Fold this sequence. Notes:
Keywords: Receptor. InterPro entries: CdAMP_rec, N-reg_PII-like_a/b, N-reg_PII/ATP_PRibTrfase_C. This is Cyclic-di-AMP receptor. The chain is α+β, with helices and mostly antiparallel strands and 109 residues long. It has a single domain (2-78, 95-102), classed as Alpha-Beta Plaits. The protein has helices at 10-22, 53-63, and strands at residues 2-8, 28-33, 40-48, 67-74, 86-93, 96-102. Ligand 2BA is lined by residues 7, 34-37, 39, 41, 91-94, 97.
Amino acid sequence: MKLIIAIVQNEDSGRLIGELMNDGYSVTKLATTGGFLRAGNTTLLLGVDEEKIEGAMKIIEKICKSRKQIATSPSPMTGGTGVYIPYPIEVTVGGATVFVLNVEDFKKM
Length: 109
Ligand code: 2BA
């Protein structure tokens, strides 16, 4: 068995969970926050048998779209004042960031 950890955008999470569950996957949803944007995102945990990993990946790839977001970053240009001025930068937030881990043991009690 493997554990898929998928970090996705909140906008895609409802549809993604729906499709995964329709295909028989068990899903746990966690409300998470990205360290860079400090904005909410969604982390899904899926415990899956090896042969079902590809199916899950296909669904994640189909649903999760990359989008551009504006973030503020402190400017290195202090102008001699020693003050950092925030300025907007555009980042492309990926469709999904996915980790696949080996599961040593799996029990339901
Ligand atoms: P955030 O950390 O809020 O990052 C949002 C987006 O900002 C990233 O999209 C990336 O395009 C950009 N970004 C992140 N760190 C950056 C930096 N140091 N400089 C410039 N741009 C930067 P994604 O790469 O698609 O990541 C989306 C979310 O997935 C991340 O939200 C984070 O919550 C998670 N994530 C991505 N890679 C990860 C990793 N290696 N480990 C744990 N979580 C990760």
